[in-house]
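Hello forum,

I keep getting stuck at the same step: I have a sequence, I want structure tokens, and every attempt I make locally crashes halfway through. Rather than fight my setup again tonight, could one of you with a working pipeline run this one for me? It's a single chain of 197 residues.
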Amino acid sequence: MSPPLVVGIGGTPGAASSTAAALRTALAAAERLGVRTVLFDGDALAGLPLYLTPGARDHPVALELIAAVRSASGLIIASPGYHGSVSGLVKNALDYLEALARDERPYLHGLPVGLIATAWGWQATGTTLAALRSIVHALRGWPTPLGAAVNTAQVRFAEGRCSDASVAQQLALIGEQVASFRPALPLGDREEVGGML
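Reply #2:
Ran it on my machine without issues. Output:
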């Protein structure tokens, strides 16, 4: 049996993406706990056509993304804050998760989802993190207790290292929370619990 899979989604195109670097830091922490990871970074996401354009659902990156999320035991999503919210690139990728609507496990049902928001200043980090939480709730996922807001006016990433030890620790904790999350009940046990379904 292969180890659990954590899927990372996010970043901006180009090697200098601080959002992708933050996401890689969290994924590396998850890997240290024995999970497999796969990353859909900004370069991969930039190849996705706009959701629902003709042929978009059959695009190779879309098929890869859906297959990975379908097999995942957790996700980590990272977005830059553009004008106070999630980037179009990341939101477009998340829109493709509609393909999971009719699965036995619909959308992100029961999955832990770590969230990271980066922005040049504090205001957009907070609003972007809140927007990501709302999206994950709409997709039936479980945002991890800790979400990271990274102010890139103060924090730098170079050669895979974060310039701020406390931020690096927060990012690692997100990866650890996603990798170690276990639901109280197995997903298949959907019978009534305490009078509620």
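Residues 31 and 37 are 7 Å apart (CA to CA). If your local run keeps crashing, start a new thread with the error log.
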